[in-house]
Amino acid sequence: MVGGSVLPQTTRLLTPNNHGQGSEQRQHGQQGGHLPPPPPLLQSRWRSLEEFRQAHAQFIKLGQDCDPRCASSLITSCALSEWGSMEYAVSIFRRAAAPTTYDVNTLVRGHVLAGDPLAAVLLYKEMEEEGGFQADNFTFTFLLKACSRLAAAGEGQQLLISLYGRCGEVALAGAVFERMGTQRNAASWSALMAALTRAGRWAECLALYGRMKSEGCRAEESALGSVLVAAAHLGALEIGRRAHGCLLRSAAGWSSVIVQTSLIDMYMKCGNSERGMRVFGAMEEKNLWTYSAVISGLALHGDGEGALRVFAGMLTEGLRPDGAVYVGVLTACARRGMLAEGRRCFEMMRREHGVAATKQHYACMVDLLARAGKVEEAHELVLEMPEEPHDVVWRCLLSACRVHGKAGLGELAARKLMEMATGNAGDYLLLSNMYARAGRWEEAAAVRTAMVDGGLPQAAGTSAVEAAGTLHSFVSQDRSHPQNRRIYEMLRQVEWQLRFEGYSPDTSQSAVVDGDEEEKRRLLAGHSQKLAIAFGLISTHHGSPIRIVRNLRMCGDCHTYSKLVSKVFDWELVVREPGRFHRFKEGTCSCGDYW
């Protein structure tokens, strides 16, 4: 490794020697993991390795050795007792059906106490490579001790980066990373990228990935996993594709179910559901997370029928759906207006699969009913909830009241949201827009005034479009882009051509409720989505979709505008907003104007 590390290049666990009593007394103490410490009786029952072997044989004969609780107890006794054997403890670990973080911590600690810190570090690296392992603070405590005994400064610093990242101290993680200098290797880059991803700093993660490549360091699987997550959140399809290419060239990581599921999630969230489904179809092994990613992804794209087909296939495979899968299923039904199917799945969830309905499931059902125009029935369901409805439920109801003109019920939902004091300016905007849609301009203005007087920050609407692997973000009336002049020239040209198709700006969608019509038209013309479309038209090859990611729901005027652009310019637009995709093509939208 870089920096004169004493660790070999391989990260596979070497077969440990049979250790007797270590240099430190082996006493089991409280440590981290997913299981509580084993019962004291199981730790003190055996007085020698021979007695333990005989008892273990009985456990195997009875089929109890694969039970997670039993396996953890056996591993702990064998690894941390004075008569213990690390070689035998590792063999039990290898047989365990589902080793936990607790088990890994026990072995890491056992190796350190037995005077074999190298084996401790190699075990950790192996678990990290295999994926699915979640280290905790206890893991790092034992590993840092191992690194200190090995005098492996580089590995110790890498562990500190991971530890700081898990604690949310990204600045400290970055400081350690920068101090490493020439000792930085693929693992340290990966650790910092994981820290940035965990903190939701997606753009910084991708920037670090670019820096890593420019410095000639080859990304390992864990780094590419962070890139996929960041690309998915930002909608950076081209960057995600490149990461996919790197994985294909690195055959070792491509077959992992976790990696392939991450690829599906990335493609779905970046607007390429076809590619995501190709990855899914090629997978030899699928688990519950895989099906959940596909179903939720299809729900994002408004493909309710496809989501239900995948769900049916999952049931045929014998997999039992959990609450997360059902959130995806119910969301898919809501996005497509599949009322009967949604009701059937909600009942199946509770009666056939024994999944208790959570607030998320109720929110999906309220959304389904309300979107279908059954606003009163949705309200009745809210009142029947076993728990106090949370803000998402009332927000779904308020949004539907805005669409269907149910001002009275909308005011009730808004009042509930105000009582919760969520500090969400969007709730005020929904209520204001509901009044504006009903022509109640004074009340609409009063709500916006109350929002301002309350000091509630209104998130600026942004629209980001990817061009040549770089994300370009716009806000309303934005003039900061280097190609500002060309963008506004294209914007004027687009609006001029759309007028021949009968386009007229819908000024009821303007954020200004008390301005004149000309001012409203001017502000609508500079909406961030329209700027992103104009930039896409001058920077994207014709035939390639223009892909836009929004942080807020688009207004009705932008929706109409986008449909007409796709028709007049014969250009496909793919727009992601919170909770769903819109695919505009030949003058229509994939949502069927149901959103």
Automatic annotation (TrEMBL):
<dbReference type="InterPro" id="IPR046960">
    <property type="entry name" value="PPR_At4g14850-like_plant"/>
</dbReference>
<dbReference type="InterPro" id="IPR011990">
    <property type="entry name" value="TPR-like_helical_dom_sf"/>
</dbReference>
<keyword id="KW-0677">Repeat</keyword>
<feature type="domain" description="DYW">
    <location>
        <begin position="502"/>
        <end position="595"/>
    </location>
</feature>
<dbReference type="GO" id="GO:0003723">
    <property type="term" value="F:RNA binding"/>
</dbReference>
<dbReference type="Pfam" id="PF14432">
    <property type="entry name" value="DYW_deaminase"/>
</dbReference>
<dbReference type="GO" id="GO:0008270">
    <property type="term" value="F:zinc ion binding"/>
</dbReference>
<dbReference type="InterPro" id="IPR046848">
    <property type="entry name" value="E_motif"/>
</dbReference>
<protein>
    <recommendedName>
        <fullName>DYW domain-containing protein</fullName>
    </recommendedName>
</protein>
<feature type="region of interest" description="Disordered">
    <location>
        <begin position="1"/>
        <end position="40"/>
    </location>
</feature>
<dbReference type="Pfam" id="PF20431">
    <property type="entry name" value="E_motif"/>
</dbReference>
<feature type="repeat" description="PPR">
    <location>
        <begin position="185"/>
        <end position="219"/>
    </location>
</feature>
<feature type="repeat" description="PPR">
    <location>
        <begin position="287"/>
        <end position="321"/>
    </location>
</feature>
<dbReference type="GO" id="GO:0009451">
    <property type="term" value="P:RNA modification"/>
</dbReference>
<dbReference type="InterPro" id="IPR002885">
    <property type="entry name" value="PPR_rpt"/>
</dbReference>
<feature type="compositionally biased region" description="Polar residues">
    <location>
        <begin position="7"/>
        <end position="18"/>
    </location>
</feature>
<dbReference type="InterPro" id="IPR032867">
    <property type="entry name" value="DYW_dom"/>
</dbReference>
<dbReference type="Pfam" id="PF01535">
    <property type="entry name" value="PPR"/>
</dbReference>
